[in-house]
């Protein structure tokens, strides 16, 4: 059922940041909503755990991608970011065919570190919160 057609909400385009892992786990999508970076993922069979809910690892990856994307969208002069720490708290479940999306807010960004928090929703209902610390890489 991995070819399930899930409608992608208007305004979303394929995520411009790619890696082999994200390609395997995706497809991820990005959008700006009221100036805020949003990352979305249509849940397919490959994203499900044994209880037919989105696997926590999938949501944790979405959390990491969302918080990273929040930073590089806020400051386009950043060369890259890497995760120092990531905390996810699961509030609910997401099921096959749901659209999940994450959004983040920067708490502090300066020097070589940034602190960010956010949330993930499934069809508009909160399913996780997250916070992270990221190392910032600037062009030399």
Number of helices: 2
Q: What is the rounded distance between the termini?
A: 46 Å
Main beta sheet: 7 strands, antiparallel
The main sheet orders its strands as 1-2-3-5-6-7-4
Q: Total number of β-strand segments?
A: 7
- The structure class reads alpha+beta
What is the global morphology?
Answer: globular
Q: Work out the strand percent.
A: 35-45%
Rg to the nearest angstrom? Answer: 15 Å
Taking pLDDT < 50 over at least 5 consecutive residues as the criterion, the unreliable ranges are none
- State the order of secondary-structure elements, H for helix, E for strand: EHEEHEEEE
Q: Averaged pLDDT, please?
A: 92
Helix content: 10-25%
Topology, element by element:
Blueprint: E1 13-14, H1 20-25, E2 29-33, E3 36-42, H2 56-74, E4 80-90, E5 99-110, E6 113-122, E7 125-137
Antiparallel strand pairs: 1-2, 2-3, 3-5, 4-7, 5-6, 6-7
Description:
This protein has helices spanning 20-25, 56-74; strands at 13-14, 29-33, 36-42, 80-90, 99-110, 113-122, 125-137. The protein is of the alpha+beta class and 140 residues long. It has a seven-stranded antiparallel beta sheet, with helices on one face. The chain starts with 12 loop residues before the first strand and ends with a strand. The mean pLDDT is 92.
Keywords:
seven-stranded antiparallel sheet, 140 residues, alpha+beta, 7 strands
Describe this structure in a few short sentences:
The protein is an alpha+beta fold and 140 residues long. It contains two helices and seven strands. A seven-stranded antiparallel beta sheet has the order 1-2-3-5-6-7-4, covered by helices on one side.
């Amino acid at each position: 059922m991995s070819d399930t057609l899930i409608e992608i909400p208007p305004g979303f385009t394929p995520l411009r940041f790619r890696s082999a892992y994200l390609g395997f786990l995706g497809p991820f999508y990005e959008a700006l909503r009221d100036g805020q970076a949003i990352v979305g993922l249509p849940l397919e069979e490959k994203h499900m755990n044994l209880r037919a809910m989105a696997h926590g690892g999938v949501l944790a990856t979405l959390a990491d991608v969302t918080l990273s994307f929040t930073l590089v969208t806020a400051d386009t002069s950043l060369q890259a970011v890497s995760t120092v720490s990531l905390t996810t708290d699961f509030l609910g479940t997401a099921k096959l065919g749901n659209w999940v999306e994450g959004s983040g807010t920067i708490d502090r960004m300066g020097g070589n570190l940034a602190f960010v928090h956010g949330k993930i929703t499934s069809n508009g209902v909160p399913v996780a919160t997250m916070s992270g610390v990221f190392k910032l890489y600037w062009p030399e």
